[in-house]
Amino acid sequence: MTWSTWLLFLSVSLAAAFTPGPGVLMAIATAGTQGPARALYSSAGNAVGVFIVATTAVAGLGLVLKTSALAFGLLKIVGAAYLMYLGIHTWRRAARESAPASTVAPAPLQASRRATFRAGLLVAVSNPKAILFFTAIFPQFMPPDRIDIVRFLMLTSAFIGCTLLSHLFYVAGTAWVKRRVRQSAARTR
């Protein structure tokens, strides 16, 4: 792979990773409700899910999804349903946390680290954006006649690195905004 091809792939990966999608929205929501440290678990799950999507796309499932509008449509519906489930779950948890039960404020409810990781993983494997990237754009950077494992691992690792970088950026931004809102609220009291 030439240096210019590598830079092109990296540029495309950064653009795709920083474009908000389900994984970024989940990282932001987790950082806002459970804190930045907990958001790292959902981002790690998302990274593993991206690797799974890349592997299945290269192994042939991507071709099926690319040629079957029904299969791709079903995957999008499942992904959207899962995101709605996560949204409703977060909404209900926030309602439970804000309900005045006593004079002592309860500690915020947090999902377990494993559940947060699993949620990130499920968002990634049902993410149409990642599936489209690995079925439409990724093959342009792979040799057409064979599967080059070294190149596959290098490109997939670069994409995962870009994804984690974007999540860190959005999580840090969310933490900063949350801090500023708290400071502003404290000043007005």
What would you note in describing this structure?
By secondary structure, the chain is mainly alpha-helical. 81% of the residues lie in helices and 0% in strands. The protein contains eight helices and no strands. It is globular, with a radius of gyration of 19 Å. 29% of the residues are buried.
Cα radius of gyration in angstroms: 19 Å
Helix vs. strand class: mainly alpha
Helix % is: over 70%
Q: For the terminal residues, how far apart are their CA atoms?
A: 60 Å
Number of helices: 8
The beta-strand count equals: 0
Which spans have pLDDT < 50 for at least 5 consecutive residues? 101-107
How is the biggest beta sheet arranged? none
Gross morphology: globular
Binned strand content = under 5%
Overall pLDDT score? 81
What is the element string, with H for helices and E for strands?
Answer: HHHHHHHH
How are the SSEs placed, and which strands pair?
Elements: H1 3-18, H2 22-34, H3 36-59, H4 61-67, H5 69-98, H6 113-125, H7 128-137, H8 149-188
Helix pairs in contact: 1-8, 2-3, 2-6, 2-8, 3-6, 3-7, 3-8, 4-5, 4-7, 5-6
What brief labels describe this structure?
single chain; about 190 residues; mainly alpha; about 0% strand
Structure summary:
With 189 residues, the protein is mainly α. The protein is 81% helix and 0% strand. The protein starts with a helix and ends with a helix.
